[in-house]
Recover the amino acids of this structure.
C-alpha cells in the first residue's frame, strides 16, 4: 500500500484519495484527446508558435550536425537550385578527397551525415531541378566503393545509405520525360563497362522496367558496343569474361522486357559458351507456349568435358553435379503442357525417391485418381525408410509428419545416429517425445554423449536440458525398455565425465 506524503505544518489536509486509481477507459475521450495533443503533428506544432519552433530548431542544429545540414539546405532552397547544389557539391568533394578510416565509434555520425546528404539531394534539390539531383546522386554513388572501404560497416548500415541513393536515382530517372530517362540510361552504359560489378549495373537493371519501349533498341545497341575487342583489352581473361557476362545479363533483361525469347537464348549462349542455363531458357520458352523446345533444352546432356572457369562460377553457371530441383520442375511443366501426364508423374516420383522432396510427393499424390493416394503414400513411406541417407529420411518422416515411421527408423538404425547431427536429431527427439518416448530418449542420449565426448562447453546447457528431458521420459518407460535404464545411464555419465564441472553445475540448476 502506497504511503501518503505528510502535509506541511499549517496546510489544509488533502482530500482523501480513492482507494483504487480509476483505469483509463475508452469512454474518456477528453483524456485521450489530451494525450494526442503531445504528439507532434502539423496541428499540434502550429500551437507552439514561430518563436518556440525556431528555438527548438536552433537547439537541435547545435546538437545534431546532420540535422543542421538539412536545415541549411532548406534555407538554401529559398535561393534556388544552385545554392542547394553548392552545399551538396562541397560535401561530395570532401568525401572524394577523404582517405581516413572510420571506425565503429565514428560510424554512426558518419552514416548520419551521408544519409543527410542524400536527403538534401532528394528533398531539396530534386523539386527544384531533377536533372541536377540525378547528377549529384550519380556522383555520390560513384564514390561508394571508396567510402565503404574506409568504414567499419560489418552490419551494412552505411551500405544501406547507398542503396537508398540508388533507389532514389531510379525513382527520379523513371519519372522524367521518356526521352530524358532514355538519355540517362544510355549515360550509365560507359560506367557499367568500366566497373561491371559496381552499383550502376544494378541501377540500370532496376530502371529498365520504367523505360519507354522506344528506348530499348538504342540501349541494347549501346550495351552491345560497350565491350572492347579482346585485343584492345589488357585485363585478365576471367575479368573480361565477367564484364562481358554482366553486360549480357542486362541485355537479357531487355530481351525479357521485349518478350524476345530467341534474343534471350542467343545471349545466354554468348554469356555461357557451352554451359547455358537450360532452366532459364526453358522458363522463357514455356512462357511463350513453346513447350516442346523447352523440353528439348532441359533434356540436353550437360557438358562434362570442360571444367567450369572462374568467369563461369562468378557469372553463376549451374553446377552439373548438383541435383537440380528447378530443372525437374521445369521438365514436369513442359510434359504437362504437352499432355504427357504419365511421364510427368513418373518424373515426380523419381525426384521424390532420389531426394525425399515433400512438395514433389504432395504434387504426385494430388495428381493420382481417387482412392489411389493412400497406397501410394504407404509406398512413399517405405521408400523413405529404405533411403540410403538416414538423416534425410528421418527429416522427411518427422516433417510429413509420419511419427510411427520415424520411430521405426530410429529403432532400425539405432547404431547410425550421431549427436553432431543435432540439426536433425533435436527436432526429431522433440517430435517423438509424446507418442514414442523410447525413441526420443535414444536420440537425446546420442546428443548428450556427443557433447560431452567432444568437451563442447558452449553446448553444456543444451546437454543439461536433454538430460532433464530424459529424466522425464524415464518415468513413462516400461522397465527394461531402454538399456541402460536412466539411473544407470546417469551413473555412467558421472564415471566418464565427472570432471566436466561446467556441465554438472548446469544439471543441478535444471
Amino acid at each position: 500500500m502506497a504511503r501518503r506524503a505528510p502535509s506541511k505544518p499549517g496546510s489544509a489536509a488533502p482530500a482523501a484519495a480513492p482507494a483504487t486509481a480509476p483505469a483509463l477507459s475508452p469512454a474518456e475521450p477528453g483524456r485521450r484527446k489530451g494525450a494526442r495533443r503531445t504528439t507532434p503533428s502539423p496541428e499540434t506544432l502550429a500551437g507552439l508558435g514561430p518563436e518556440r519552433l525556431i528555438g527548438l530548431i536552433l537547439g537541435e542544429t547545435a546538437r545534431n550536425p546532420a540535422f543542421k545540414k538539412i536545415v541549411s539546405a532548406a534555407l538554401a532552397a529559398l535561393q534556388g537550385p544552385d545554392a542547394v547544389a553548392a552545399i551538396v557539391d562541397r560535401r561530395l568533394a570532401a568525401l572524394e578527397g577523404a582517405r581516413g578510416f572510420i571506425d565503429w565509434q565514428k560510424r554512426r555520425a558518419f552514416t548520419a551525415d551521408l544519409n543527410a546528404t542524400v536527403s538534401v539531394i532528394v528533398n531539396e534539390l530534386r523539386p527544384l531541378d531533377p536533372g541536377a539531383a540525378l547528377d549529384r546522386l550519380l556522383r555520390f554513388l560513384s564514390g561508394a566503393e571508396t567510402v565503404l572501404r574506409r568504414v567499419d560497416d560489418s552490419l551494412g548500415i552505411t551500405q544501406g545509405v547507398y542503396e537508398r541513393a540508388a533507389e532514389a536515382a531510379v525513382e527520379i530517372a523513371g519519372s522524367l520525360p521518356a526521352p530524358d530517362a532514355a538519355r540517362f540510361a544510355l549515360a550509365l552504359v560507359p560506367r557499367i563497362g568500366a566497373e561491371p560489378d559496381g552499383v550502376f549495373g544494378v541501377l540500370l537493371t532496376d530502371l529498365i522496367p520504367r523505360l519507354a519501349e522506344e528506348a530499348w533498341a538504342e540501349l541494347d545497341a549501346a550495351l552491345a558496343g560497350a565491350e572492347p575487342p579482346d585485343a584492345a583489352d589488357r585485363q585478365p581473361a576471367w575479368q573480361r569474361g565477367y564484364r562481358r557476362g554482366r553486360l549480357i545479363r542486362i541485355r537479357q533483361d531487355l530481351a525479357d522486357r521485349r518478350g524476345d525469347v530467341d534474343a534471350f537464348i542467343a545471349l545466354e549462349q554468348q554469356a555461357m559458351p557451352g554451359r547455358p542455363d537450360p532452366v532459364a531458357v526453358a522458363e522463357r520458352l514455356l512462357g511463350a507456349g513453346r513447350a516442346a523446345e523447352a523440353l528439348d533444352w532441359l533434356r540436353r546432356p550437360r557438358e562434362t568435358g570442360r571444367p567450369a572457369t572462374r568467369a563461369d562460377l562468378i557469372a553463376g553457371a549451374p553446377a552439373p553435379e548438383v541435383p537440380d530441383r528447378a530443372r525437374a520442375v521445369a521438365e514436369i511443366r513442359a510434359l504437362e503442357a504437352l499432355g504427357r501426364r504419365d511421364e510427368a508423374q513418373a518424373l515426380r516420383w523419381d525426384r521424390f525417391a532420389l531426394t525425399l522432396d515433400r512438395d514433389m510427393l504432395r504434387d504426385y499424390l494430388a495428381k493420382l485418381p481417387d482412392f489411389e493416394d493412400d497406397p501410394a503414400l504407404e509406398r512413399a513411406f517405405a521408400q523413405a525408410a529404405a533411403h540410403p541417407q538416414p538423416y534425410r529420411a528421418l527429416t522427411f518422416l518427422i516433417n510429413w509428419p509420419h511419427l510411427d515411421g520415424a520411430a521405426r527408423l530410429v529403432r532400425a538404425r539405432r547404431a547410425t545416429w550421431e549427436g553432431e547431427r543435432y540439426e536433425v536429431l533435436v527436432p526429431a527427439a522433440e517430435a517423438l517425445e509424446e507418442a514414442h518416448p523410447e525413441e526420443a530418449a535414444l536420440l537425446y542420449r546420442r546428443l548428450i554423449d556427443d557433447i560431452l565426448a567432444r568437451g563442447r562447453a558452449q553446448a553444456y546447457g543444451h546437454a543439461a536440458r536433454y538430460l532433464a528431458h530424459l529424466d522425464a521420459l524415464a518415468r513413462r518407460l516400461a522397465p527394461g525398455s531402454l538399456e541402460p535404464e536412466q539411473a544407470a545411464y546417469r551413473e555412467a555419465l558421472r564415471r566418464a565425465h565427472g570432471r566436466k564441472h561446467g556441465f554438472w553445475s548446469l544439471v543441478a540448476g535444471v
About this structure: Confidence is low (pLDDT under 50) at residues 1-32, 313-323. Residues 52-257 form one domain. The first helix runs from residue 29 to 36.
